[in-house]
Amino acid sequence: MHELPKNTCLILAILAAVIGLFLVVAVPFIVQTSLERVINALAKVSEGRPAYSSGIPIFNFFYPLWRAFTFVAGITLLAIAGSIYAGKDWTFPVALSAYAVPSVGGMFMFLPYISWVGGFPLPMILSWAGLAGFWSMLLLQKSDRMQKLVDFLVFTFIGMLATHAFVIGIGAQRMLQTRPGQPFFAGLQWWILTVSGEVNWIAVIMLLLSIPLLAMRKSSGWWLAFLAALAIFAIDVPTQIVRTKTLDYLYGSLLSIGLLLWLSLPVFKAKLVKA
């Protein structure tokens, strides 16, 4: 980033400060409002369909958890805004990681909201804020068009796959908590969820860790993203075959194929990892 024009550094620094302040001050209230609306809607639905009651404790835990992550991301952006303006190279991977948190978390919180509450999806504001910073950091770097295209596609697919994989894990937990015959498992279609859900969550951690490492052009980042996508593909395909009532695992498989493709193309890999 030390090679960026001072005006570009100023833009990125202002963006970090504004988005950071938004994540710290406004997002806690947005998340709380979203959570209460989702819980109220689920409470009404579960009166007639008890299976949906499992979503209440799950969302009561994960909405505040992502809110906490987002708060820390906002503090991070505020703290490094001055260093971004100074053009410090280390701020690039740190800022990307901070922006990834509201991007992924907001999209996760958006899905239950749009499913049960409807109307304007408040959590999407988090994703928009995160993506605005995320894509700005990628596209305003001093690099050729091919480098920007590679970064945009790969980092965006990492975020999309991480979001979907996290949601898959949530869905598995929700279904397992209201499964028939518990604490036992009534066949393969139920116990396979204990594999797919946990594998997807482990892959989420690997994908998020790959972002700063890939931003530093480390081969370890490439391998983390590649192995996470491969693991998701390896578990989502058989899960989709076993559980045919939903296409969620097919979507996860397709996203993982997309990321594997971008990572494996020689021209892309050459741009992502320093020799």
Textual characterization of the structure:
The structure is a single chain. This protein has eleven helices and no strands. With about 280 residues, the chain is mainly alpha-helical. The protein has helices spanning about 5-25, 25-50, 55-85, 90-115, 125-140, 145-175, 190, 195-215, 220-240, 250-265, 265-270. The model has no long low-confidence stretch (mean pLDDT about 95). The two termini are about 20 Å apart. The protein is flat, with a radius of gyration of 20 Å. The protein has two domains: about 1-140, no CATH class; about 145-275, no CATH class.
* Percent of sequence in beta strands: under 5%
One letter per element, helices H and strands E, the order comes to HHHHHHHHHHH
Q: What's the overall geometry? A: flat
Percentage of helical residues?
A: over 70%
Summarize the biggest pleated sheet: none
Alpha carbon gyration radius: 20 Å
Number of strands: 0
Amino- and carboxy-terminal Cα gap: 20 Å
The helix count comes to 11
Question: What order do the helices and strands come in, and which of them pair?
Answer:
Elements (H helix, E strand, L loop, with lengths): L5 H20 L1 H22 L6 H31 L5 H26 L7 H16 L5 H33 L10 H4 L1 H23 L3 H24 L5 H17 L1 H7 L3
How is this structure best summarized?
The protein is mainly α and 275 residues long. 81% of the residues lie in helices and 0% in strands.
Main features:
single chain, mainly alpha
